[in-house]
Amino acid sequence: MLGSESCDRVVLAGRDEALTEVEDLLRHRRLVTVTGPGGIGKSALAGALARRPGLGPDAVVARTDLAPLIDPGLVPHWLARALGMDGPAGKPQLAALTEALGDTPALLVVDTCEHLATRCTEVLTALVDACPRLHVLATSRTPLRTPGLYPLSPVPLDVAAELFTEYARQLDAEEPPPDTVRRICALLDGLPLAVRIAADRLAHRSAADVLSSLTRAEAALDLPATAPGLPTRQRSLRDSLDWSLRLCTAEERLLWARLSVFPGSFELAQVLEICGDAALPPGPLVAAFTGLAWQSLIEPQPDDNEGTAFRMPRTTRAYGRQRLSLSGEERELLNRFLAWTLRAS
Ligand SMILES: Nc1ncnc2c1ncn2[C@@H]1O[C@H](COP(=O)(O)OP(=O)(O)O)[C@@H](O)[C@H]1O
Ligand SMILES: [Mg+2]
Predict the structure, then answer these.
(1) Please, which pLDDT band fits residue 162 given cuts at 50, 70 and 90?
(2) How many domains are contained in the chain?
(3) Which domain holds residue 113?
């Protein structure tokens, strides 16, 4: 059975533990960021949490999404508007908002902070410091430097399969065979957005067709999300990764493309050897590596006890590989990888 929290028309699947843990963190730290790659379910989790009566019946609950906001200077205005507490014109908004909130019990959910991370951290910290009964839950692909941080993991394969089947039911599509569903979901790295996009295809194609199209990882990038209500940056996995790419430095972009030559996991020492050169010397390479991990574009290899191996999710890698191919350095990087493999064997 799926969990009991409602999430669009599908219940929020497999997040009971995360909900309890985030609620706990929020109670104790008052300012928490849920972090993880695009489409992992940060906003869905935050939305479910906002619907719980955690702070009591009198609490003000407000939610805002900063995705359309470009000017960091306007962050306080957006928050004030979400809370229905726009201050008088001419007065600095942060001060006005702090005064208006005072010690009102409130939960403020602030979605999509990654492109304004520094300003969000400053404003949210100042607000929580000044308002003793305010709790803030932020979501961001890049962790904010907040007292509480909750990295959201992918959903387990069973949950992804349940989710896929539930989306199929909503489409009135023929019930997909469980084995095919599991194989489809295994290709999607437990990313709920990818599961949703793939399940949407059942409106036109059989589950077997969807599976065979996904065996090429690049094919998943451009499947259109047809479900209503998804924001523009989630209209496809490519849109979602484009949004992440825009937040990367030039060195992170270069390393993202170069890392795509690794078919499996990789360690920093190997990456330095294969991806480093005059365009990406050791210092900037290490910084870019850390940056990609910070933005959840690479993640620790789950079964690695030493904690030194990383991997890149399948579609993130396919995206990087296309950029590598366009850059004209694919052959060179493949040669370096091959030479390294021969030396290491
Ligand atoms: N646990 C879940 N159960 C059901 N649907 C989910 C779950 N997590 C995410 N989704 C759905 O997947 C899509 C992407 O999730 P979202 O929360 O927007 O991701 P993020 O905020 O991390 O980019 C949304 O349509 C959302 O409703
Ligand atoms: Mg989101």
Answers:
(1) very high
(2) 3
(3) 6-151
